[in-house]
User: Fold these one by one.
Assistant:
Number 1:
Amino acid sequence: MSASFYVTTPIYYVNDEPHIGHAYTTVLADTLARFHRLFGDSTRFLTGTDEHGQKVQQAAEKRGIEPQQHCDEMVERFRAAWRRLEISQDDFIRTTEERHQRVVRRILTDLHAKGEIYTQRYEGLYCVPDERFWTPKDVVEGKCPLCGREVTSISEENYFFRMGNYQEWLIEHISSHPEFIQPESRRNEVLGFLKKPLGDLCISRPASRLRWGIPLPFDPGFVTYVWFDALINYLSAVDGLQSPGGPWWPATLHLIGKDILTTHSVYWSTMLRAAGLPLPRTILAHGWWLVGETKMGKSLGNAVKPLDLLEVYGADAFRYFLMRDMVVGQDSEWSEEALIGRINADLANDLGNCLNRVERMIQNYAGAKVPAVSGMEPVDQEIVVLAETAVRTAVTAVREVRLHQAIEETFQLVRAVNKYLEVKAPWKAVKQEGQPGVATTLAVSAEALRLAAVLLSPVMPRKCGEVLHRLGVLDQPDALVTRGFEAGTGGIWTDDLLRWGGLPPGTPLRPAGPLFPRIETT
Ligand code: MSP
């Protein structure tokens, strides 16, 4: 059954240098989008950059250039990083684009007209790097509870959104929609947060203090608070306001890190509600990549630059590690040794060797063409059953965003094929009278490998394309890099890609060298 799938990443602060945290969410969204295209779902994948706010204004001032020019230059680092990681986004939104600002203005005008926005003098403590107000109760020894940096005391007139009015409604919505906030621990966290009275949200900054933002349409003396502006990207990119019941709104899945859960589950939900728009189906908060006990990120100075690692290990191995090693929702320890361990054990040993053995034997015993099955013993049938189970379980796991599990299911199949080859030992059987079972063994192994490569292609589009090219399925080895398997684009997508029996007998193979050379460590 095909469905519609609209997935988003957070839009990243344009000032930051892309690091592993950004890379993780983006690869996760990309992998999911590629899986859904493979399933035949109509799929849309959005990422982008968050470009307004004080930090950007200050950085541009420091460089002596206009903020817009600063953003235009900085955004290229994200675009380049996503190109290197072979990200297949359908759209890249920048909050400085007119198509976005137009929708922000429309929502502000609408909420103001409905009386959802009002003005009031405000006194509070403000964290410049996080662009958030705090009450004295929130701050820890004069420091921001989020980032630990100094807060400044501020008193000014501002505009407020009546967020507090939606507290009861939000609790009810979260309680009656278990899929809305995931994983469950995060859902409970938000429900816990909503036990305290929910205040109204300050949604403006005086233009005298902050120039670099979207002016309030009803008061040009103020610009919009950066989070109010940023969250709307998910909607403005699909122009949901013009077609609220249209194909792309509400979004299916907002992927975020756990540190931005409140802004998404509370601010964004109530903003949409007040604007009379439907809520996204799921907000999924993933954990952090840690080094030792510390979150990796720019401000902590321990950011591992994905691009540096990409040069060394390649996009596919890097993507594989991110998707295989983190259980979505939990924190994960980053280490280069763990990455190398995965490459050697899973990619070089299990997958690479399997391909190599199958290729070599088909070359030596079957004239380099996929042989026809000639009789199935229970031991052969077992592989068929295993493969069909792997497909079923992996598809369900993907739909429930348990990617590590989908990958693990597929690798169990690969390992089972390696064992099956040991048991059937075609290199011995080939010397016996009539070469019993050799053709079947080779055909079954090659087909299982084809299915494994299709299932892993959203994670490793280049290497799996190569496997499928070598198995004679794809004419071009790089056919999957840009979009993966996708319906309606003509050519490589069929609706039985994930069904047993897709490799016709007689298909000529194109054997080549090791798929993933082992990384030697001394
Ligand atoms: N601009 C806002 C998001 C606005 S969305 C409407 C923002 N940007 S960010 O660039 O600072 O962070 C983006 C994402 O990176 C967050 O989801 C955050 O959780 C994630 N990560 C930053 N460091 C991380 C790790 N070390 N590990 C995993 N993800 C982390 O917030």
Number 2:
Amino acid sequence: MKHVLLLAGTAEARCLAGRLWDMPGIALTGSLAGTTRDAHPVAVQTRHGGFGGAMGLAAYLRRNRVAALIDATHPFAAQMPWNAAEAAQAAGIPRLRLLRPAWPMRQGWLQVPDLAKAAQAIPAGGRVFLTTGRRFLEPFLARPDLRVVIRSIDPAGPLPPHCHAIQGRPSDSYAAEFAVMCAYGITHLVTKNSGGKPAKLDAAEALSAQVIVLPRPPQPDGPQVANVSEAVDWLHRTVGFGS
Ligand code: NAP
């Protein structure tokens, strides 16, 4: 039996767990950071919380005789992919990065390096749909000349009067994204380039709202695949299935 550790926190990780939970010869453990209060469950035995950096993760891999590591964390998880790469090397095991493709930039979109630059790009009176999560909001909290609708999975915390919180996840439905942006008269959408279903981007374009995109953080070198099927193939080639 080969023990495989899956760094989760994405839809792809959940789907991969769904493909592997009963695979002969594979014992899969999921891992969630434990920072999202209402995280979707992963369909395998799952641990919660950090490992204590790359060396903590390397110690976990050795102690639990992990044969392969699959990093299916979010494209904007800036630290964990580097910890995974360093830990897998230290433990001498193969590692795969499962990373959904980024959205190709479309005509008229604006790419900015961070939220401070995003806020600077929006003129007074703008009605902003901010979908980058509940962290690092300061540049928008400091702009009372804007109306800012902040969508986040966990509550955003206390906000000034010009900001309005919506608790929820992005929707795959164009109609749902169109409805929410329409309801607030959104003129600007600020989003990470997370990839996946482009429902909110299509809705923003239909409303002639300016799309402002944050680029992804860099990734460590090493084997990388774009979808769950390729990850299953990699695992098959790398550790094999069967008892
Ligand atoms: P991060 O900056 O890469 O990670 C910060 C720390 O959280 C890591 O150093 C690690 O702690 C711990 N960690 C992260 N992912 C973990 C996992 N799957 N299992 C165990 N520990 C984990 O990531 P983040 O931006 O804080 O995101 C945290 C989690 O939320 C990630 O798993 C990511 O997939 C998910 N997520 C992130 C975003 C986003 O936009 N950033 C969006 C959706 C989901 P130690 O160093 O102590 O091991």
Number 3:
Amino acid sequence: MFYIDEPWSSEGEGNLRVSVVGMGFVGLTLAVFLASRKIRTIGIETNRSTLDTLRRSQPPFYEKDLEPTLKKVLKSKMLELSDDISDIASTEVTFVCVGTPARADGSMDLAAVTNVAKSIAGMIAKDTERRLVVIKSTVVPTTTDNTIMPILESFSNKKCGKDFDLVVNPEFLREGSAMDDTRKPHLIVMGEAGNSSSKKLRNLYARVYGKQMAKVMITGASTAEMIKYANNSFLATKISFINSIANICKHVPGTDVEQVAEAIGHDPRIGPLFLKAGPGYGGSCFPKDVSALVAFCSKINVDSPLIKATQEVNMRQPYEVTRIVIDRFGGSLEGKKISILGLSFKKDTDDIREAVSLKIIPELLKRGARIRAHDPMATGRVKEIFGDDITYCDSVAGCLDGTDCCVILTEWDEYRKLKPGIFLEHMNTPIVIDARRVLNPQIFEASLEYHAIGRKSKASASR
Ligand code: UDX
């Protein structure tokens, strides 16, 4: 394992053509970014409806800056789209960005990756130049060495590290800032499988990043795979840790998790990021990757109590929020009207995968509550799940109208700006449960009944 932080030569990579297989979150962002840096790129997507949407310059999900850049690169033809994987034949570097969804037992479903590997092997069999295959899909350690490499070799009848190269290059981008994160990665990890060389990938990145090139760390393929899981599990653990502290603070008068997090974040050994207590982490990565790591550990007979605890704390955390609501109303929510502000798993995205709203809303409905919901972007997606069981509102004021309790579940900037007046004016009983800690407790406690994660509320203290 070693670091490289000198500039790499991009000579000889001038006309390099690249293919990206899988136009999901990672693949589309990468393809659009490479094309915007004048790399001729082919994006492969076999889902016809996604492909049709993309061809109309519409990303299938919202991401800041993505749509205008997609429009530009399609117009300039630096990005071409296809549903035919054999189109990768005209490219020398192929990025694999297909999904690895979770199975019911939490383990990773590799079907898409293995199918794509077989197709790529078919191309390698005919290749006259040495192709570089880059694995960006998140796969558990040893998958590339023990599954992907053998497929590529056996289906092509060629040798990895001699006839083609295979490199694991994990992705660390976040939804909501995917384009920025892709433009400015904090580190580039390249895990070389077998005797593969990552030189072509380093040269490609040198060309697209120029002076902005991040430090490159070269490892073996399995270490690179482990880095991705360790990275995500560590961040998830930080969140579950601060949520555990929040749950203690909730029962200790005079303590506030926000101040605790701020103070410990000043310790350079801890750092301030990912210490925001809330209703639990969601999204397409943390829940899936932590589950996959737990399943992987159990498969190889390694006990992993810390990772399991991270997962368990997170599974319980949404119910810390529903408990505040249920306790407030003495058990039954029959006939209570509850407004939910925020449905997406975090702000600046319309993604609702593993969003806490999808756990909290059914729990409240089950207890007889009537739900009104608002989100700046995600109501359309939530409607597909709850249909007419809840009411969808275009404005915060409309959502609050006549309700007995309001629960804030996503940290959208527009909720941060809310003043007590809007709750007092529109709600039947102005009770606010701030599961994201977006409001100022001093101001809100002085005006209405305010409850929050990680803080014993004045209202409950006096009850
Ligand atoms: C994450 C990783 O950050 C990224 O590196 C990886 O490539 C993909 O997974 P993402 O899922 O887009 O990115 O969102 P992130 O900003 O990490 O938030 C994940 C979840 O944790 C969200 O539900 C968020 O609300 C929650 N979170 C985050 C907290 O509850 N508290 C925090 O302090 C930070």
